[in-house]
Amino acid sequence: MKTGFLYGIVACSKTRVRCVLCGVHIPKANKCIEQHTNGAKHKENVELMTENGITFKDNKLYCKPCMLELSLEDSVIGHTEAESHLNWMAAMEDLIDGEYISIEPFLASEKDDALCEVCHSTFQCTLQNIESHVNSINHRTSISEYLKPLNGIFPVENDDELWCKICNTFIENTATGILEHIDNDEQHMYWFTTIEDLIEEQDITIKSFLANEFDNNAYCNKCHLEINCNARSLEDHINSDIHLSHFS
Ligand SMILES: [Zn+2]
Ligand SMILES: [Zn+2]
Ligand SMILES: [Zn+2]
Ligand SMILES: [Zn+2]
Ligand SMILES: [Zn+2]
Hints:
The chain has 248 residues and is of the alpha+beta class. 43% of the residues lie in helices and 21% in strands. The two termini are 48 Å apart.
């Protein structure tokens, strides 16, 4: 019951109630309570809860990340600014950065668990679990399999190696080799930054170019034209009259 106007309101004294989300007292009259729960401050705190894994159940505030029942003296803001909570959130963000692990539904209490989008597996959302998952061989393998067709990386006859079409270079056929190339190879990263900068907001797609070894073209969805997938040709096309005419 996240929308009911009594959400977050607990009895306090004969004349007052308390909003435990905001940590304030309110006169015990429906009109006052409703006014409070419709207020911007209260709504902000409800939103803060969904971003921070805090729930309100059985008149109690509970923080799922910290696995901690908050004292009624606490408020949502108070807890989200607490060091232990901030540390968890920061450590978690570090762990899942670039790992395709989704924890938003967990924080918003829509799901009990974290979800790995590349392994299609769910697990209890603790720092320890996530850390061991992101470091597992299974996850490293899934993520490199997922990234290959997004990065122009293809198998070759020799199983020990892969071929990067973008850099025209061979890389080691291991999860580490692939991730190392995608995340650290300067030429590879430079190509992506350049091309992505160019096609951003131009409705040009390079997905098929990246996923198909023998496709040499980007595709302009506006002009229904294939364009050689290199910076020079793309730039020429983006500045051509035919393409510009679609954006005026
Ligand atoms: Zn409130
Ligand atoms: Zn917490
Ligand atoms: Zn995974
Ligand atoms: Zn490359
Ligand atoms: Zn075009």
